[in-house]
Amino acid sequence: MTEPTVLTDTHQGVWVEAAEWTGDQIGHTGASIRKRALRGGYCDGVDIVEVDNGEFSYTILPTRGMGIWRGRYHDLDVGWQAPVPGPVHPGFVNLQDRGGLGWLTGFDEVIVRCGLDSNGAPGTDVVLNNNGVPSEVELTLHGRIANTPASRVEVRIEKSEGGGRPRIIVAGICVEAALFYPGFELHTEISTVCGSNAFTIVDTVTNLKAVNAEFELLYHCNFGPPFLEEGSRLEMPARLVAPRDARAVEGIGSYADYLGPTDGFIEQVYWYEPLATSDGNTLSMLRNAGGDRGVVVRYNTKQMPCFSQWKNTASTGDGYVTGLEPGTDHPNSKTFERDQGRLLSLAPEASHVIEMTIEVHDDVAGVQAVQQEIASIQGDSLVEVHDQPLSHLSG
Question: What's the CA angle centered on 356, arms 158 and 362, to 5 degrees?
């Protein structure tokens, strides 16, 4: 393994404006790594790290919580076209805007984390203030971590002694903390094997404070064309599916199927209880109508027991996209999720580890192999589809 190259370290006063690794340096033809800073417009000051494993390329955003902005596998774009011209520097995002919906003004990534103190819709919570008095606080949409710049970023290249393909790793640390606030550290490693059709995210969330702390983390994995189109379908092994609200009830008969771009479409959300293997591994796939293109989200239900499907098949200009969203909880209000016992708690200095892989297929054989894997996990179990919201899931 090569020694890490540090691109950012705020404690040591290190910041590298530009760096590049070629295929010869990495050890794989066609592979590359490039770090640069964007200039102009809402992108001004955003650091990006572009990784290309020779087959699959993607862009990491250290300035935006180490999210993944865009990807491309062969000739397939992985991501979506948001109305906002991003990636947007957090300095232009006011989380309190429009009643706590300001998070949306920076939202255009393919993968964005929601958390860590809270996720879900805007609302209120009651916490102890600096005088130990219970006080009401405002929680904004999907929390702060997506707009928290990394304090440390490094690149590593692991070369196999046995002649195997090298692995590219970009690691980062984001700290979401303040005086009289909860304190969390997110350590992430985003890695890919050269020549593969996948990359993997391994996140470790640590409680920095000397008292127990609740935390929430959801991965908003967002996909548009060419995987999303009229006739596309979400496939995953599940025990239960239920609509979030009255709007979702309207589409429960076709919850897994997608429309083409539809003017005036109002979002629909469905809650899932996933099925998994005995060790907790599971997956979901968005595949196109022809069944020859699919994007897969692999994760573990012991780390993230909840799954949400966000359907937003609005017009292309309004953001034609769907979200496949594994999480530690559902993106309801924090108070509701607490009442349902779904909030995780970390003891002082304790950590929670999450691993998730994004995988792309561009032929019928690849999509069918994933479908067989899903069918194997589903087995003889029937999906329990509810036509009305369930009180323990919707709040």
Answer: 85
Query: Please, are residues 327 and 309 in contact by the beta-carbon 8 Å criterion?
Result: no
How far is it, in rounded angstroms, from Cα 63 to Cα 67?
Answer: 9
Rounded to whole angstroms, the Cα distance separating 256 from 55 reads 29
Q: How remote is the C-alpha of 259 from its chain's centroid?
A: 23
Q: For residue 63, which amino acid is it?
A: T
Each residue of 173-215: pLDDT tens digit? 999 999 999 999 999 999 999 999 999 999 999 999 999 999 9
Query: Is 1 in a helix, a strand, or coil?
Result: coil
pLDDT band, very low/low/confident/very high, at 395 (cuts 50, 70, 90): confident
pLDDT at 1: 63
pTM above 0.85, yes or no: yes
Residues 6+ away with beta carbon under 8 Å from 13: none
- Asked if the model's pLDDT at residue 162 lies above 80, the reply is no
In the structure encoding, which two tokens stand for residue 285, read together?
Answer: 């796939």
**Average of per-residue pLDDT across 347-364:** 98
Strand partners, 172: 153, 188
Strand partners, 313: 320
Contact 169, 39 (CB under 8 A): no
SS3 41: helix
Q: Which long-range contacts (CB under 8 A, 24 or more apart) does 180-186 make?
A: 180/129, 180/130, 181/117, 182/116, 182/117, 182/207, 182/209, 182/213, 182/214, 182/215, 183/207, 183/208, 183/209, 183/213, 184/116, 184/117, 184/208, 184/213, 184/215, 186/65, 186/66, 186/113, 186/116, 186/145
Q: Which residues pair with 241 in a beta bridge?
A: 272, 385
Give yes or no for a contact between 285 and 371, defined as CB atoms under 8 angstroms apart: yes
Question: Token pair for residue 246?
Answer: 């009255």
The dihedral of CA 251, 253, 255, 259: what is its sign? Answer: negative
Cα separation, 134 vs 130, whole angstroms: 10
Ordered by where they begin, the domains of the chain are 5-385 (2.70.98.10)
Encode pLDDT of 268-303 as tens digits. Answer: 999 999 999 999 999 999 999 999 999 999 999 999
Which pLDDT belongs to residue 366?
A: 98
With CA atoms as reference, report the closest residue to 298 among 277, 313, 312. Answer: 277
The mean pLDDT value of the chain amounts to 97
How open is the CA angle 171-220-204, to the nearest 5 degrees? 35
